[in-house]
């Protein structure tokens, strides 16, 4: 049984990258790399803190092209490089305190993400499973209502990741 349960209607995304698994894992866990590709297109990411170990935290801020700043955090649950990374993602303030999303008062306070990486013939397959964690019915409904936007957003983020990986080889 999977010890990282995701609630019903999880989001499952897969993408192949033409890069070694060790490199793909590194750009997810090294602050020198992570800030160069994570997030929406044309946003910048400032990595304030990145302590990738069980119980450790990523804390950072994203700035939109218009200058709007949003803070977020990951709390790492499992780190098993280079094959698995599990983290709970939340919006936060500058100190890392969990806050409600600025765009929807019913957005889940916590989203669990389970990242797995497998490599075959120099190509790494990434699977990201996730969804609301410790969520209310209203929070699950808000997540489900945003599913197409989430899929589109991750597609753009994964495009940036592919470009960044190509630049690192």
Question: What key phrases describe this protein's structure?
Answer:
single chain; 169 residues; alpha+beta; Alpha-D-Glucose-1,6-Bisphosphate, Chain A, domain 4; seven-stranded antiparallel beta sheet; 4 helices; 25% helix; globular
Question: What's the number of structural domains?
Answer: 1
Q: What helical percentage do the residues reach?
A: 25-40%
Q: What is the CATH C-level name?
A: Alpha Beta
The 3D shape can be described as: globular
Q: What CATH architecture label applies?
A: 2-Layer Sandwich
State the secondary-structure class: alpha+beta
Q: Major sheet, described briefly? A: 7 strands, antiparallel
Structural notes for this entry:
It holds the Pfam family AHSA1. This is Activator of Hsp90 ATPase homologue 1/2-like C-terminal domain-containing protein. Residues 19-165 form the Activator of Hsp90 ATPase homologue 1/2-like C-terminal domain. Belongs to the AHA1 family. The chain has a single domain (12-167), classed as Alpha-D-Glucose-1,6-Bisphosphate, Chain A, domain 4 (2-Layer Sandwich), CATH 3.30.530.20. 25% of the residues lie in helices and 37% in strands. The protein has helices at residues 21-29, 31-34, 137-145, 147-167; strands at 11-17, 44-50, 57-63, 69-80, 84-92, 111-120, 123-132. It has a seven-stranded antiparallel β-sheet. A hairpin with a 3-residue loop joins strand 4 (69-80) and strand 5. The termini are far apart. The model has no long low-confidence stretch (mean pLDDT 94).
